[in-house]
Design a protein that fits this description.
- The chain is an alpha+beta fold and 406 residues long.
- Helices cover 41% and strands 19% of the residues.
- The strands form three sheets. A five-stranded mixed β-sheet has the order 5-6-1-7-8. Strands 9, 10, 11, 12 and 13 form a five-stranded antiparallel β-sheet that branches. It has a three-stranded mixed β-sheet with strand order 3-2-4.
- β10 and β11 form a beta hairpin.
- The longest helix is centred in the last third of the chain and has 22 residues.
- The chain is globular and about 60 Å long.
Length: 406
């Protein structure tokens, strides 16, 4: 393809995604694990190598089920510090490649390399060099998709996995996209896929041919518009290196054993403590609290509560989360629970905000956030477990997963 007049490639976006990240770090650091099925975790699968995936092992699957599917798998405990260090090394290479890097998680990012055509070659050349550097300097496999839009670059990397490179030329986008399963469209989960399958729609091309009106009627206005646009590869979003999280969340896999309301409350308390600290550390406030549950039959539920005013006040967030959990306890008792997650959404900077009515008379000498701030300072100085709630004493608070900065 000839060089564009402005010196910018017509397919400028890379989606770079490390392959089986946790498991690949374990195989890198222990040569005995290379080529073998590896499961990271114990009671629950946190990650697994492609050798284990080929046996049917999936992330968040119970450990016993995983071992039944893959008896030869080697189970290793997670080493979060090693994963964090590997992620930082990879992102350093991303940012050495281009300043336009938008991190999605600790193991994937979008990169805009369109302006590097004259000095570094085509996006495909840059992607190949990026993969070589990460393999040579960090010792990990990575898959890269190259396309005109963020959506298509991510789809391309998914198709190219593992350890691949796939370029979708600008003049062959729909030839590549339309034969793919409709589940490749962002937002098409099991429920939406079942609705589309009932209409005989199984590929992206069939969804595109269905038209916008029927899609809106099937899944709602906003989702229908989005699916119609993506089915034609219309995605105007640019790579945004300054993009901040729209939500802050955490979830914990619980295995399959029964959990008492007291245990679930303790897990919720610990989760809110961690999220509140992250929220304040990022100088942000939230307006909506979202509870996510997965039950023993693999069904899921999402419940949310919007607060009267944006806040980073731990007791306020905890009260809302407890009300959401209390409403689901009857179903949990009947169906069991295997995962509990919490997200804080509708985030905003923690700048002074308009007071809400009715105004409550408070002691002007009392700062409701002072305790939160004092606890944050103690934990920053002496460690996250230096101060904890009595309800959490002697309890396993789960694994702290490395994250991108908030």
């Amino acid at each position: 393809m000839p060089e564009p007049r402005a010196g910018r490639s017509p397919t400028p976006i890379l989606h770079a995604d490390l392959d089986a990240f946790y498991a690949s770090v374990e195989q890198r650091d222990d040569p005995r694990l290379r080529g073998r099925p590896v499961i990271v975790g114990g009671g629950v699968v946190l990650a697994c190598s492609y050798e284990a995936k080929r046996c049917g092992v999936l992330t968040a699957m119970g450990g016993r089920q995983a071992k039944r599917l893959c008896p030869d798998a080697v189970v290793v405990p997670p080493r979060m510090s090693a994963y964090s260090a590997a992620s930082k090394a990879v992102f350093a290479i991303f940012r050495d490649t281009t300043p336009l890097v938008e991190g999605i998680s600790i193991d994937e990012a979008f990169l805009d390399v369109g302006g590097l055509w004259r000095i570094a070659g085509s996006p495909v050349d840059i992607a190949a060099q990026l993969r070589r550097r990460i393999r040579d300097e960090v010792g990990l496999p990575i898959t890269v998709g190259v396309a005109r839009t963020k959506f298509l670059a991510k789809v391309a990397s998914g198709v190219a996995k593992p350890d691949g490179l796939l370029h979708v030329p600008a003049d062959r986008e729909l030839q590549f996209l339309h034969p793919l399963p409709v589940e490749k469209l962002w937002g098409v989960g099991p429920v939406t896929a079942a609705k589309l399958h009932a209409l005989g729609v199984r590929t992206v091309g069939e969804a595109a041919a269905l038209g916008e009106g029927p899609l809106v009627g099937l899944v709602g206005k906003a989702e229908g518009h989005k699916l119609h646009a993506l089915s034609h590869n219309r995605d105007p979003r640019a790579v945004d290196p300054g993009r901040r999280r729209r939500s802050i969340g955490s979830q914990r896999a619980l295995g399959r054993r029964p959990r008492s309301p007291e245990e679930l409350d303790a897990i919720l308390v610990g989760t809110v403590d961690r999220l509140g600290r992250r929220l304040r550390g990022a100088h942000r406030v939230c307006r909506t609290v979202v509870l996510r549950l997965r039950f023993a039959d693999f069904s899921r539920a999402t419940r949310s509560r919007t607060l009267a005013a944006p806040t980073a006040h731990t007791p306020t967030i905890l009260a809302a989360a407890r009300r959401l959990l209390a409403a689901e306890l009857p179903r949990i008792a009947a169906d069991g629970i295997t995962l509990l997650g919490l997200s804080l959404t509708n985030l905003a900077p923690d700048e002074p905000c308009q007071l809400t009515l009715p105004l409550t008379v408070r002691d002007p000498g009392v700062d409701e956030t002072a305790l939160d701030g004092a606890l944050d300072a103690l934990r920053d100085r002496f460690g996250s477990r230096s101060v904890t709630r009595a309800a959490l004493l002697g309890r396993d608070e789960g694994i702290s997963v490395p994250l991108l900065p908030d």
